[in-house]
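I hope you will forgive my troubling you with a question about protein structure. The record follows directly beneath this note:
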Amino acid sequence: MASLRGIQQPELSKKLFKIIKSENHAIGAYEAAGRERISIASQLSDWGEATADDSISDISDKLGVLLSELGEQEDVFAQNLEDYRGVLKQIRNTESSVQPSRDHKAKISDEIQKLKYKEPESTKLVVLEQELVRAEAQNLVAEAQLTNITRQKLKEAYDLHFAATIERAEKQAMLARHGRRLLNLLDDTPVVPGDTRPAFEHTAQARQVLNDAEEDLRDWQPNLEPINSTAGGMGANLMPTSAGTTGASSVVGHNEGSVQGDLPVESSVTGGDHYTNESQVTGGEHITSGSTGHITSGEEGLPPGVHYEAPDRSTAHYTHGEAGQTTAGY
């Protein structure tokens, strides 16, 4: 079933879908490694007891405690990676939601080209060109939302990933250092046949090593360089809400049919009309978004009483100087 889900993914989100799926396998491996480490720790303790050597028995038992905690840290790391993976899913979901907008715009463009070739005088061209203007405007909003959520969530996801990696590394290094302290308590002076090993005299010190390890883990605090973000001005609809914008940018099928916000579009249509930041762009698609970056689209959300003036493509022109910057990289 996993392979079928991969096949059904929109083209835009297939690569990230594969990354998320691979991370799931990696997380499973960390969890398995943690379980194996705990099992080995138990086996080490059992072996040390079976040697009938009090020194080895005591040291191996306490080494087993530290090794078991190393395994627990693998499990904590795996749980933190699940959080990072969940953030990547928000980007993937947004990519999946933007794909229909791209496909719709491309489909209309193809229909126009075919019709111009077959029936260059067809009146249907006017309707299609009008639909293309709307589709381009709606896709521009969707692409802006996509680049906004992608940049924000990429930083958030790998902030979690690297913070978890640092925590795991520092705690495991801490446990390893205490393990080396235990090894220094074991006397490995060679004996000749018939000699008797002196009794183990460092039981209290070995116990103190474990106490120190427990205290260090309890007192551990992250000391990380902060990841700077300027995404605080982004609203729930994935568009800026700063003072420079007139409102939240989205195509939501209001009665006015307007797209508000700082949209870098400047287009000339019939009669010299322009639609810019405050212009009315009426939409056949209904695009909404939530905090998870999910955008849905459809053709049924036309607002009542909205009239679309058919554009004249022979005189229409589009300048994408700034718009290309908004959607760069997609």
